[in-house]
Structure formats: structure tokens, C-alpha cells
Specification:
The longest helix is centred in the C-terminal third of the chain and has 21 residues, at 365-385. By secondary structure, the protein is of the alpha+beta class. The relative contact order is 0.09. The protein is built from 11 helices and 22 strands.
Length: 386
């Protein structure tokens, strides 16, 4: 196995709250000389955020730790940890090169099984099976290889194979912008948006008729008859519809660059949005910060400005009420957990305007609810013991 980085730093995730630096040291010292360990914690409560960084003095020891300890429970817990090289370059993750998507996975396929299946093709930077709030597999996952060639080999050899008696699909991971262009699905109805206000219903149909016979077309208008900027064109033949999507998407029509794609049913759109939402939560689970106690002077632009010096901000959102007035809290998502942790460490408690900021790792609603329930049960049990 060739080491993908000249660093001896490892990211260790999926840790249970009771796993401390000392527990990690006792575990990792068995494979090599540990230089330092840091469990990332909530700056206010000091509770573990569920991940840590383990640094070795040399790369060989770090490599051995991945080989021997990855997907093993730590310190007597029942949850397998997930170990990856700590790569600091966000461009590698954002590029998507070497990243593959696997679906139709059997419920028995966990992180380790997925890793073992694909590690034969090359160095793996990260590997994860998507899970629901209960920790059960959602039937799909991702494997990010160091080299695109390894990803290509994995797709060619594993796509269509049986894993745990289920035929799996393995394909190149596509960014959201590259999805939804029809794939192998046969369709005749095409959705067109971002149309110019100057494009008429007749103009819309004429622009698409060159690809084949059109059975119907529709331009959405408001109560006054003005275009709402989107419409539909239905063809007789699926091949004509596909060609229209391929050639017209991103083209210029009446001075506007239009978007063209296969028209989806409402249920398809909802399912796609849910999937994209879950994938985003999975991807940025350790990179999303909750920020509260914001001064009244902080707006959306100021919020992003505060956090930009600490890394690449994927998104930032100031929460407002129905009158567009700040609620005093918001969320900032970075491209990597390292950037988020740096911001959390350096900004928590800093005075902005007239108030000190409070920062914590943003938690999913169901996880937060479970923690509150556990805390409540603990208080009740404590009273009963008095």
C-alpha cells in the first residue's frame, strides 16, 4: 500500500462520547510512536464531537494504524471507528476526481465491508455507507480513491456484481450540477427554465421543433399573461427529446442562457431533493457550525465575512423571523472539518459588535433530540437516587 500523503496525521471519526485522548493513546500506541492526539470537543460543554486527530512521528506507523485499526471499536465501545488520512487540501475533495457512488447495497454491508471490497483497486481516501438516524444502512455509499484510475477499475470490475446476494450499481460520483440530465431513462417531456421574458409560447415551440415532431408545448404565465420564465415541450419520440436536452441545455435563446432537462414527476423531484439533502448532511456532517448570540449588526454578508479567514465557506445562513429581523443565530458550513474546527477554536467567545459569539458543531435534529432526552432521563434518575 502506497501512502497517499507525506503526512503522518490521521482523522478518526465515528467515536463514541466517552472515547478520550488517553483511550485513543492506549489504542494507537500499539501500532507506532504517537506524536500527539486531539479529540475535538464542543468549546462550551467540552463534550466530544465524535472525531479526533492522531499524529504519528512517521508515515509508516500511520499507514499501519489504518491497516490494523480501521473499522475497529475503540476502548471497549461497540461502534467501529472510521480512520482516514487527514488531507488538508479541500480542492481534492471538491474536484470529485476518483470518487465513486455505490447503490443497492444490502443492509449487511457496513463501512468495513465496503472498504475491504474496494481497497484492492487502490488507495482509499475516504469510504462511508450512508446511514439513517438509527445507524442502519440506507443502501448506498461512497468511496473516494486517491487516483481516478483506481476508481475507473473499480467501476469496471464491480458494477453489476453481487454483493451479499444483491446486484450493485457502481458509477462515477457526479456533482449535483451534472445530475438529472436523463441518464438511460426514456422520456418525451422536456422542462425548460430561465427563459427570457421575450420568449413567447410560439417561440418556445419553434426553438425545439427542429429536433423532431412536438405534440404539445406550454409556457407558464402569470395572471397578466407575462411569462414566468419556464415551460414544457413534449416530443413524439424519446430520442428527439434526449437530443433536445443535450443540445439546448446551456444554449442562448432570445438573449437568455436556458436550462433544459428531462421533466420529472412531482414524486421524483421530491425524492431527488430529499436524497440531495441527505447526501449534503452526510458530506458536511463534521463541517457545519451553529453560531448564536449574534449582535444585531450582523447580517448575512457580515456573518460570512467573519468566518471566511478560517477556510472555504460552502454556505452561511443567518436565521430571520417573518419580518426579516435576525433571530440572533445562524449556521456556517466549511468545506472540511479541519477548517470548521479552526474557526470554532479561534472564534468561540470572541466579541463581535457588543456580544461574545457562541459556536458549536451543528447537530442533526434527531441527534439533538436524543441527547436532550438522555440528559432528561439522567436528571430524573439522579433525583430518584436522592
Amino acid at each position: 500500500m502506497n501512502t497517499p500523503y507525506a503526512t503522518a496525521s490521521l482523522y478518526v471519526g465515528d467515536l463514541e462520547p466517552q472515547v478520550s485522548e488517553s483511550v485513543l493513546f492506549e489504542t494507537f500506541k500499539k501500532v507506532g510512536n504517537v506524536a500527539s492526539i486531539r479529540v475535538c470537543r464542543d468549546s462550551a460543554t467540552r463534550r466530544s464531537l465524535g472525531y479526533a486527530y492522531v499524529n504519528f512521528h512517521n508515515v509508516d506507523d500511520a499507514e499501519r494504524a489504518i491497516e490494523q485499526l480501521n473499522y475497529q471499536p475503540i476502548g471497549g465501545t461497540s461502534t467501529p471507528c472510521r480512520i482516514m488520512w487527514s488531507h488538508r487540501d479541500p480542492s481534492l475533495r471538491r474536484s470529485g476526481k476518483g470518487n465513486i457512488f455505490i447503490k443497492n447495497l444490502d443492509k449487511s454491508i457496513d463501512h468495513k465491508t465496503l472498504y475491504d471490497t474496494f481497497s484492492q483497486f487502490g488507495n482509499i481516501l475516504s469510504c462511508k455507507v450512508a446511514q439513517d438516524a438509527a445507524g442502519d444502512s440506507r443502501g448506498f455509499g461512497f468511496v473516494h480513491f486517491e487516483n481516478p484510475e483506481s476508481a475507473t477499475a473499480a467501476i469496471e470490475q464491480v458494477n453489476g456484481m453481487l454483493l451479499a446476494d444483491k446486484q450493485v450499481f457502481v458509477g462515477e460520483f457526479k456533482q449535483r450540477k451534472a445530475r438529472g440530465q436523463g441518464g438511460d431513462v426514456r422520456f418525451t417531456n422536456v422542462y425548460v427554465k430561465e427563459l427570457s421574458k421575450d420568449t413567447s409560447a410560439t417561440g418556445l415551440e419553434e426553438a425545439f421543433a427542429k429536433f423532431g415532431p412536438v405534440t404539445s408545448s406550454y409556457l407558464a404565465t402569470d395572471a397578466e399573461g407575462a411569462s414566468r420564465g419556464f415551460g414544457f415541450v413534449n416530443f413524439e419520440e424519446p430520442d428527439d427529446a434526449r437530443k433536445a436536452v443535450e443540445e439546448m441545455n446551456g444554449s442562448d435563446l432570445d438573449g437568455a442562457k436556458i436550462f433544459v432537462a428531462r421533466a420529472q414527476k412531482k414524486s421524483e423531484r421530491e425524492a431527488q431533493l430529499r436524497r440531495q439533502f441527505e447526501e449534503r448532511k452526510l458530506k458536511y456532517a463534521d463541517s457545519n457550525l451553529y453560531v448564536k448570540n449574534l449582535d444585531e449588526s450582523v447580517d448575512d454578508e457580515k456573518l460570512r465575512e467573519i468566518f471566511t479567514p478560517f477556510g472555504s465557506v460552502v454556505s452561511s445562513k443567518l436565521m430571520k423571523d417573518g419580518k426579516d429581523v435576525s433571530k440572533g443565530f445562524g449556521f456556517v458550513c466549511f468545506s472540511t472539518p479541519e477548517e470548521a474546527h479552526k474557526a470554532l477554536t479561534e472564534l468561540n467567545g470572541r466579541i463581535v459588535g457588543s456580544k461574545p459569539l457562541y459556536l458549536a458543531l451543528a447537530q442533526r435534529k434527531e441527534i439533538r433530540a436524543a441527547q436532550l432526552q438522555a440528559q432528561y432521563a439522567h436528571r430524573i434518575a439522579g433525583r430518584g437516587a436522592q
